[in-house]
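Hi there, hope your week has been kind to you so far. For a while now I've been wondering how a particular protein folds. I'm sending you its amino acid sequence along with the backbone structure tokens. Could you read through the record and tell me how the tokens relate to the sequence? Take your time with it, there's no hurry, and the full record follows here.
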Amino acid sequence: MPNRSLDIHLFQSGGGVFLDWSTRYQIAVGVARGLSYLHDGCRDRIIHCDVKPENILLGASLLPKIADFGMAKFVGRDFSRVLTTMRGTKGYLAPEWIGGTAITPKVDVYSYGMVLLELVSGRRNAGEQYCTASGSGDDDAAREELAFFPMEAARELVKGPGVVSVSSLLDGKLCGDADLVEVERACKVACWCIQDDEADRPTMGEVVQILEGVLDCDMPPLPRLLETIFGRPHSSTEQQTTTVSGTSTSQPFTSGSGSHN
């Protein structure tokens, strides 16, 4: 492919072309459509099992192609899941891989959510570190912690409208030049994609419809497993998390007010 893989343009300084927000959103929708076809448009369901920026190739017009099916699993239409050995790439693996349970196409949905957040931020989800000070007792020395962007994005979302602009989550290289409605939509659907329970994640077909504005989605709760691994949320967001979780419905994805047929 003439423009190589997505990671080169997102993460490597001077290694690729600048991706403006419109192009990033186009890539997000294109990859979602591709995965939806693999999951629901083929004779057998195809679970890619290794969705990540390195496996998203960009054509001459920066249109995405999903590549590297070396780890893919085929699931007959008569079956809903398949048992297989763990495969994929650290940072994009759904929790069910770790649990050793049979997988469904929802493992690709989880990986896609991680990629979508990287499209928003322009950096590896766990690729940067920051220093914080405890501010008490003998622990005044700054300690280094992993700045995990998915939790950062989820916490900002659950604060609710008017508390913080989603522009704070954007890649600084974009200089704020983005459709903030699309940015919020992308962050919300990404946080649904990375929910612990596969049943809470949308299908890739639903992801396409959400990104295209056909479906609306409720505010996602904080992913519990990631919250456990990367620390408790700030007190200002904890109450909001409980509220969102408590009011979530069995159908968080509904027809959008601006939907089209």
About this structure: The longest helix spans residues 21-40.
